[in-house]
From TrEMBL, chains A, B:
This is ROK family protein. PANTHER family: BIFUNCTIONAL UDP-N-ACETYLGLUCOSAMINE 2-EPIMERASE_N-ACETYLMANNOSAMINE KINASE, ROK (REPRESSOR, ORF, KINASE) FAMILY. The lineage of its organism: Bacteria, Bacillati, Actinomycetota, Actinomycetes, Kitasatosporales. It comes from the Bacteria. Belongs to the ROK (NagC/XylR) family. InterPro entries: ATPase_NBD, ROK, WH-like_DNA-bd_sf, WH_DNA-bd_sf.
């Protein structure tokens, strides 16, 4: 096993720069000695790294004197609220959204629009998305922020390490490379290399948001490093996080929880299988079981979250059919997750997306199945499986995760991705 | 992320020693320049590492001149067939086995015995195992081999990083720490630290064997680095390998494929659940469905492999009940594995243990379900899921995997674990 960058002087320096930046981003403001202590280097070793990050504009001195008295007095260090911004975008079945976060993890711009993307070709969708991207970039530019990377969340399978959506059933997309359609948004104005583009399954990005923000919404990590993050919008997906890293699968197709067989002789699924989870806990299945017509509900309640709000309202009002539908969805989720827990032994299961808002009605039956079916894997003497919690981020997870993921290139390799202030800026839009 | 050993000089040297040893173990005999080329160091950088490994007796010169003519001529290097040996042990429901492999990965001793371990307390089982361990050590000692580590395969859950069997349902063990009972086998004779002991789930060790040996039985890796290894003896377990590493789970309990729900309203399982895979594809279920009484079959056909041979013979003779039982086991396996494949997207599924010997009758129905239920995760245009293959190692996998795993401490940190020839030897037994 080789460390990233190898054991060359260059590789070690790059890793140490990243460690300094991450330490200040996660725990700052910090004095120089506190940085050194956090990353296990000497104060003399940390000093030149800090100077480089200050010169590059990634760190700033707060002006407040560091409390520690030993050695040369110095100001505390913080990450800059100017400079690189991570741009996240989300392509939903019926909405588009863009947000920009700074190095401190704060949202600096956010734009969204309803959009009828189902069965629309990628071209028009990406053109509308580019308009939103340009709007977000225009908003952050006056504040000294420039896009450092763009990550796009999609409800479908993405080939590992590529920008190609292999299959997004609810959009009707197959083998669609998003890079050409987003080229205007990622190109630098002057022909120099533009900003990096990543395309990622929405459930994976929701899990990354959970890792970065799930704790208290202030950037302190809250989720345990091993968890299964369930994401439901129109479809149902999951992300598997092991030791704080996404498990992507050989081709990048891991996490297809929606097509785990729950009732093997049950309802036929569009995927060609039978009895898939999505047929019992997907939005359309729940609407139908609750006595609603999915198409009519979609027309009457367009946009992200509207139909979830409808279901939540009906459930809160005690509507019998809705309550039964959500209970049955929870049972199906519990059976599918029991399989996942037996296979993966996570510390927790986090319900994100639409499920977060419906948790009060879904959780009881879900937990009953999970407890019943994971007894072998439970701790001896303790009954039941891992903790099941609803994400605090709810439907925002994938978009926030995308923006944070776009910042990773900066955090992993601070100087490579850093454009000095005097060089031409990349632009989005 | 920090590399093992960190970026200290000591850590870097240790990693480089390990790289040299692994390169020669995997590809030797090799000339010094060939070693340098393989691990990306200069010839001058490699020379002192090689000398240290030669002095420690881990590498030897073959005496054959290296083909490359540049620089100082030298003999080709190979790993030693003396020195440290990995000791693997297996505690089965009705057998015990021990084997020793040398640094070249060759089996140098192997002893086994039938044993009625079901519902026997750990004490007597470990005493019998210690006798076998002493026998194996006595056999390899005259050949200049000494135990460098002991790994024990058990059919149950092992708490991560511990030697404690949390639950082995088919042995009737709960919260059993194996270290005290194996202390005589792992202690050094002179009171110095003995050899390291690891206790591991058998399916995990079967997967490690597959990684190390599955290719051609000659030590060249054959399995892709992402696979699910299914292991069946009395129970059914699985190991999930991601990027060549075992996925262990938060507590070490990952891989409980036998308790993945297949028919959620189906047969009650000892685990408290319902419709678990083990109730349809476990040995007892198959024997019963094939018209046999499991207890009578166990009495008439004791020992590892005997009942599998019985089922294989009946199937080969065309016995209708046996063929149907194996077909139904394949269907249940296919449903459970469809869930695993949708969640994990492995490159391959490998059937090990008893399933390897029954593959001809289990595979057709297994593959039919897997193909039907993983269409979304399949490559577009290509139908079906990952390749399903039967392990060439069959029921030997866990034992061989244990022995190779015991060698890992040497390969990961060659000089730390190396006892110079003149120092007192550790002993087993």
């Amino acid at each position: 096993m080789t460390a990233p960058g190898g054991d060359t002087q260059h590789g070690i320096r790059r890793r140490n720069l990243a460690r300094v930046l991450r330490a200040v981003a996660a725990h700052g403001p910090l004095s120089r000695p506190a940085v050194a202590a956090r990353i296990g280097l000497t104060r003399a070793g940390v000093a030149p790294l800090v100077e480089e990050l200050l010169r590059a504009g990634l760190l700033v001195e707060t002006g407040r004197a560091a409390p520690s008295g030993r050695g040369r007095p110095g100001s505390e260090l913080a990450v800059s609220d100017r400079g690189p911004a991570g741009i996240g975008a989300e392509i939903g079945v019926d909405h588009l959204a863009v947000c920009a976060v700074d190095l401190r993890g704060r949202i600096r711009a956010r734009v969204a629009a309803d959009a009828a993307n189902r069965d629309s070709a990628p071209g028009p969708v990406l053109r509308r998305l580019s308009v939103l991207l340009a709007e977000a970039t225009a908003r952050i530019a006056p504040e000294g922020l420039r896009p450092a990377g763009l990550a796009v969340a999609v409800p479908g399978l993405v080939a590992r390490g590529s920008t190609t959506v292999v299959h997004a059933p609810n959009l009707g997309w197959r083998a669609a490379d998003l890079a050409p359609g987003l080229a205007p948004a990622t190109a630098a104005g002057d022909g120099s290399p533009g900003i990096p583009l990543t395309v990622e399954n929405e459930a994976n990005l929701g899990a990354l948001a959970e890792l970065a923000l799930g704790g208290d919404g202030e950037g302190r990590p809250g989720s345990p490093p091993d968890f299964v993050h369930v994401s439901a919008e129109i479809g149902i997906g999951a992300a598997v996080v092991v030791d704080g890293q996404l498990l992507r699968g050989a081709r990048g197709f891991a996490g297809e929880l929606g097509h785990v067989p729950v009732y093997p002789d049950g309802r036929a699924c569009d995927c060609g299988g039978r009895g898939c989870l999505e047929q019992y806990a997907g939005e359309q299945a729940v609407l139908r079981a609750g006595g609603l017509t999915p198409e009519r509900a979609a027309a009457a309640h367009p946009g992200p979250g509207a139909r979830i709000a409808l279901l939540a309202r009906r459930a809160a009002e005690g509507d019998t059919a809705t309550l039964r539908a959500l209970r049955e969805a929870g049972t199906a989720l519990g059976i599918a997750l029991a399989g996942a827990v037996n296979l993966l032994d996570p510390q927790a299961v986090v319900l994100g997306g639409a499920l977060a808002g419906l948790a009060p009605w879904v959780l009881p039956s879900l937990e009953r199945e999970l407890t019943l079916r994971t007894a072998v894997a439970a701790d001896p003497g303790r009954h039941g499986g891992p903790a099941v919690t609803a994400s605090r981020l709810g439907a925002d997870g994938p978009l926030l995760g995308a923006a944070h993921s776009a910042l990773r290139t900066v955090l992993d390799d601070p100087l490579h991705s850093c454009t000095p202030a005097h060089s031409p800026r990349s632009r989005i839009g």
